[in-house]
Amino acid sequence: MITAYVPANGMLKAAEVAAGAPIPEGAVWVDVLSPSDDDLTFLDKALGLDVPTEEDMLEIEMSSRLYHEDNAAYMTATMITQADTPNPLSVPVTFVLAGHRLITLRYAEPLPFRLYATQAQRHIMPCSTGEDVLAGLLDAIVDRVADILERVQGDIETLSREIFDHERRGRKDYNAILARVGRGYALTSQARESLVSFGRLVSFVARPTDAKLSKTAERGFKTITRDVTALSDHASFLANNINFVLDATLGLISNEQNNVIKIFSVVAAVFLPPTLIASSYGMNFEIMPELHWTYGYPVALGLMVLSAAATYLFFKFRGWL
Fold first, then answer.
1. Long-range pairs, 79-85, Cβ under 8 A, ≥24
2. Measuring CA to CA, how many Å separate 290 from each of 25, 278, 297?
3. Tens digit of each residue's pLDDT (9 = 90 or more) over 34-44
4. pLDDT of 95-121, one tens digit each?
């Protein structure tokens, strides 16, 4: 699907471009969602560009993600989509600045695109050039990453309280806790990867070129650069917190396992002397004087009880229980 946005009275007016139809005159933003091979061929001819394919967008080397070609700037960055689901994804999105027109190419529907398109069509905002639209889009993307990190931070704080809640010790579902820690770390890693890619993108588009940026776009890119740097630091701090929560969880699991093993060890040690006494009188030798005692049986039972009690009291005295 190809959607063209034309500025009108400080807002953007959307128009869907049918297959083979010309791009509307004055369009500053052409958004391309999940294009077919025919769509890519049409865009190449209509815009005079070499629009990258999905395979090209998946390349990870810098020379394939940020480059100039035919007076156009090609920039590919990684975005998070489906962040509110159990299976968030990192997908590549390509931004092409040709003249003062922005072309976005994507094979997913990240939330910031929908939010920015809706706001730009309802509210007056800087959108007279492709650079203005790019700055607005990047701002929406960074805001979304900030929301994701805030949600992860809130979840990790909740996990910390649950883990160190002594009243609930022994009733914790550690498998569920480890799964939540894993999801939080994965989402934080995806957010850091996205921030790094957009930090490089902003540095690439904001560096001096023949095409000067408007003051609005220039200020926007500077603000985005500061936000990306701050969020990258926060993501690193959050990753350290998640590692601490993971270590604490594994430590508590280890302690509980040690407590269980200690109980079994103490039980085995307590019953060892009675077992020794009982086995002594089960050897069935022909000459065992105690077998003929009138009180032999209660004396043997008493020795078993006393030996078990003495072992238990010794453990208590040494603080092992």
1. 79/106, 79/108, 79/110, 79/112, 79/141, 79/194, 80/110, 80/144, 80/145, 80/148, 80/187, 80/190, 80/191, 80/194, 81/108, 81/109, 81/110, 81/111, 83/111, 83/144, 83/148, 83/187
2. 113, 13, 9
3. 888 877 887 77
4. 888 878 888 888 888 888 888 888 888
DSSP classification of residue 172: -
Residue 165 tokens read as 């809640």
The model's pLDDT over 121-169, given as tens digits with 9 standing for 90+, comes to 887 777 778 788 888 888 888 889 898 899 988 888 888 888 877 655 5
Which is higher by pLDDT, 53 or 237? 237
Contact predicate 107/231, CB 8 Å: no
What type of residue sits at position 269?
A
User: Degrees (nearest 5) of the Cα angle 212, 6, 103?
Assistant: 60
Q: Determine contact, residues 95/84, Cβ cutoff 8 Å.
A: no
The first and second tokens of residue 55, run together, are: 């395979």
pLDDT above 80 (res 285): no
Token pair, residue 221, equals: 């890119």
**CA 117 – CA 129 distance, rounded (Å):** 15
